[in-house]
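TASK: fixed-backbone design
INPUT:
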């Protein structure tokens, strides 16, 4: 069993967790539930909570966008999705009403089959945390992630900051001393270009 924490301690752990969820999706494909797999895909693609994804209605999906209206924070947020996912969701659409039936237990069984050991109460958020970790590992902006997840405070989003591939490394270049040290080199380059230009004009 692999113990899961909301924000993985390092990128290797986060990548391993993503691989475990690949197994979970494979398990869901074999599930008797007609909806659990697609709800899980929505969560992994948008960072939605399980309840938000499971409660989606037809009118919330338009033009490769999902709008989550009944959120924990009470704020509406809209997240882009791929054309492939929208096409899958389109096959579930009805004229009106919910897209999915209750399928949370099927998801829990898939987690168990995949060997993921979750702290109590974390199952409904685990795909959301996995989305956020994967987003940051692959260079996603933390402010963008804040908006996607609907966090009220950037402090909530910062728990994923250590997973950024260049976490804190930019301090070495984005500081005043680095700029001052770079300036003489830039000036030397300009002077060299000017001298070369004068030489060319003289020869012609």
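OUTPUT:
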């Amino acid at each position: 069993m692999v113990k899961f924490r909301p924000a993985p301690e390092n990128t290797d752990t986060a990548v391993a967790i993503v691989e475990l969820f690949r197994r979970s999706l494979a398990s869901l494909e074999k599930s008797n539930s007609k909806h659990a797999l697609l709800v899980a895909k929505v969560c992994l693609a948008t960072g939605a909570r399980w309840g938000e994804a499971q409660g989606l209605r037809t009118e919330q999906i338009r033009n490769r966008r999902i709008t989550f209206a009944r959120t924990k924070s009470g704020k509406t947020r809209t997240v882009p999705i791929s054309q492939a996912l929208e096409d899958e969701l389109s096959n579930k659409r009805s004229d009106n009403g919910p897209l999915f039936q209750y399928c949370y237990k099927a998801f829990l069984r898939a987690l168990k089959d995949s060997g993921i050991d979750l702290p109590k109460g974390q199952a409904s958020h685990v795909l959301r945390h996995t989305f956020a970790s994967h987003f940051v590992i692959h260079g996603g902006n933390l402010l963008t992630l804040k908006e996607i997840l609907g966090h009220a405070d950037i402090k909530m989003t910062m728990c994923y900051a250590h997973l950024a591939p260049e976490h804190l490394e930019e301090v070495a270049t984005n500081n005043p001393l680095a700029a001052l040290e770079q300036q003489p080199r830039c000036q030397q380059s300009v002077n060299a270009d000017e001298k070369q230009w004068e030489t060319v004009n003289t020869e012609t």
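COMMENT: The chain has nine helices and five strands.
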